[in-house]
Amino acid sequence: GQCGSCWAFSVTGNIEGLYAIANKELLSFSEQELVDCDKLDNGCNGGFFNTAFESIEDIGGLELEKDYPYHGRNEKCHLDKSEIKVSIKDYVNISSDELEMAKFLVQSGPISIALNANAMQFYMGGVSHPLRFLCDPDNLDHGVLIVGYGVHRTRFTHKLLPYWVIKNSWGPRWGNKGYYMAYRGDGTCGLNKAATSAILE
To answer: CA 127, CA 136: separation in Å to the nearest integer?
Structure first.
């Protein structure tokens, strides 16, 4: 069965990025710990960033992926407090202004976002910019992570397309090695509506 744990991958990805920037070391933190131990969210049945960050504050932090590996199903929480490798003290909701989002990304690190995943189901590469009626910005159903941005120049028409680089949790065979480029600047698929980030201890 499918485990709807995208929210947990977005949250751990955000914290991994912040940790790497602060400590010059990229560690992989445990999504399964969130699925099992975050009682404010619903494990494989979905979750929200703000409540996940609150839970991480409450339970004390995250273990490493290797110490609490991912199984993709709801299990009993077996958190070992002595194995916690990162703690957070708060979280911040980021402006829906995409210029402010870009500023935050440069100054602080990757951003957890929710979006409508309609267009992602059929993504074959390039900058995704679906029509609004195909990708309702009010129906946010997937959690991912913004890790960068840029501008793509199209080959023949030389149109400039600003984009976000988004890390997804559907494995490396999906999209562009697991990543997605979505149009930046007009709230495509609602990607600017629920931007958040942890603040590390």
So the answer is: 18
Identify the CATH class of 6-91: alpha beta
Q: What's the Cα-to-Cα distance from 73 to each of 39, 45, 46, 80, 165, rounded to whole Å?
A: 15, 10, 12, 19, 28
Q: What percent of the chain has pLDDT over 70?
A: 100
In three-state secondary structure terms, 2 is: coil
Instruction: Report pLDDT digits (tens) over 45-96.
Output: 999 999 999 999 999 999 999 999 999 999 999 999 999 999 999 999 999 9
Inform me whether the pLDDT recorded for 155 exceeds 90: no
First-to-last alpha carbon distance for the chain, in angstroms, is 36
- pTM value? 0.95
Q: Which CATH superfamily is domain 93-199 in?
A: Cysteine proteinases (3.90.70.10)
Convert 148-162 to b/e letters by CB count within 10 Å (16 or more is b): ebeeeeeeeeeeebb
Active site residues: 6, 142, 168
